[in-house]
Amino acid sequence: MPKQTFLNLPQEKQRRLLKAGFEEFSRVPAIDASISNIIKLAEIPRGSFYQYFEDKYDLQAYLVMQFSQEWYQTWRQLLQEHQGDFFAAVPLLFKDILDMMRDEKNHAFWKNTFFQFRNSKEMRKALHQQRRSKHGDDRELINQQKLRIELTAHNYVLLNRQITTMMIQSISMYFMADCFNVDDPYQEAIQNFNTLLNWLQFGIQDQGGNADD
Fold first, then answer.
1. Which among 68, 86, 156, 177 is placed 20 to 30 Å from 10, CA to CA?
2. String of DSSP letters for 75-137
3. Which of helix, strand or coil describes residue 33?
């Protein structure tokens, strides 16, 4: 996460540095990104970069966090619009996220980000901290009468992790569509996520069935 020196910068200088990072991470994955390119675009001395962020991965994680905060606001809005129906709001949130990622200006950034997501400890830590800080804020918006579980804080953490994993899996397949010869990666991603969500919502075992039948 950014150091306090970054947070103390004027908004314009913050935006310039974040924009430079976004452009560099859109050009190549973070592992190949150049801090020299970032500071050149941001018009700051090299030494200043390390006063603001630990390294390039720290900057990338913060950029992802900025998007995450926007998605969180969208999530709350969707819950309110659908009277707290969790399973009505989730697929709409996924579509909103996917639409943003397939937008021309964002596509390269997110494609590069997902290709190295598993290797970025900073990003996983940032998103985990983001989820932990938000879980208690929106449980009151969810209509728990529509759920079969008691939505304790612990259960909500588990549920959010499962939904996040499903989203990451479906989005990763969207960006890897070329490897699978998918005709319509966007619709395939929507369908894959909705299938996983349907399994979570309704289960996959027939009533009365068991492993010995």
1. 68
2. HHHHHHHTTT-HHHHHHHHHHHHHHHHHSHHHHHHHHHHHHTGGG-HHHHHHHHHHHHHHHHH
3. coil
**pTM here?**
0.86
Rounded to whole angstroms, what are the CA distances from 101 to 60, 72, 90, 111?
15, 16, 17, 8
| Per-position b or e across 43-55, b if 16+ CB within 10 A of its CB | ebeeeebeebbee
Cα-atom radius of gyration of the chain, to the nearest Å?
Answer: 20
- Vertex 194: Cα angle to 211 and 213 (nearest 5): 10
Give residue-wise pLDDT tens across range 47-78: 899 999 999 999 998 999 899 899 999 999 99
